[in-house]
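Supplementary material to the annual report.
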Amino acid sequence: MTPQAPTPAYRRLSVEERRSQLLETALSLFAHRAPEDISLDDVAEAAGVSRPLVYRYFPGGKQQLYEAALMSAADELRHCFDEPHEGPLLPRLSRALDRYLAFVDQHDTGFSALLQGGSVVETSRTTAIVDGVRRAAAEHVLSHLGIAEPGPRLRMTIRMWITAVEAASLIWLDEGKQPPPDELRDWLVEQFVAALAVTARRDAQSDALVRALAADL
Amino acid sequence: MTPQAPTPAYRRLSVEERRSQLLETALSLFAHRAPEDISLDDVAEAAGVSRPLVYRYFPGGKQQLYEAALMSAADELRHCFDEPHEGPLLPRLSRALDRYLAFVDQHDTGFSALLQGGSVVETSRTTAIVDGVRRAAAEHVLSHLGIAEPGPRLRMTIRMWITAVEAASLIWLDEGKQPPPDELRDWLVEQFVAALAVTARRDAQSDALVRALAADL
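Predicted assembly:
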């Protein structure tokens, strides 16, 4: 191998490799700038390829690229929730939140733009992708809690807490990432327990969970 | 006056009256059907006027009519928060929530379409209108609590609870308006106190509030 190896931009990539590279480039651009401020030229330039090449992979242009990048971000986010079903419950929740908050930290601008709504690239498809992540989060929480059939009050509590986590993440970005992520994570876990305890006053299923969590610590 | 009085649709209205009538008609249509499913013809027909007349008042067509209807709904929603600064705090919050939940009940489909995102009529302007209502809600809560300068932890707690109320309203609509509004309202008030109590563990300002609320009951 000579020291003058070709630069990565000119290396011959397979179709799948090229597609992944373009997606990754798009995702890192969309993560830190509003979709309005990104053109296909920016993506081409950052990937070191021509604009027609980007179009060849994404004939639907920026909207298609945005949706593909969003789906890839949604997959990444789902992986944050992967947590072995072992050990005490609240530390599992803490670890998943740590990964989630690291994701929010890494995709700050894109995360805000996506969730604050009213963006030019927002469609019923992007909304469906985001809703899918929320549903996955709720299912993960319920599966760790060992609940196969949540009643309406427990379901509302979990969904409400997930929305609250999302809102807290946006506010956290808005406040210049204060308080520190560790404090935010502990606060969110405690909010989860507190919300469940309120529901437990009028719901036997939630009451049993609160007791299980207390015994688990 | 003869018994054959003209029907309201043909009564000569002033410019302001006509505008109000069209807005009210639009709002009642947008309240119960998705914006995608409403045409200017529907608005004209429901108001008993011609389509060109609707265009004369709203030259920007459906988008302008939607935004005007949304602004009028936002005003109505702000009025839900009007509550005298008198008497114990939590009952004040309960009364405001009662009015808010009645609003949600009356504007069910429109409320969901607006807040679930991805609608064709959603723009940065509609997002700004909704954010204005959220900010107004937070300011009302803080003014009743007598807090002029909320610290970041208290601010986050209040904003998070307001988002949680919104989420709970959407879930409530989604679940066929179950549980009954009185139960939902009590649960939301208790969630407010519980969220504040969690924050109070690491925030002196919130701690003072929790004590004041407990003494106030």
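The mean pLDDT of chain B is 90.
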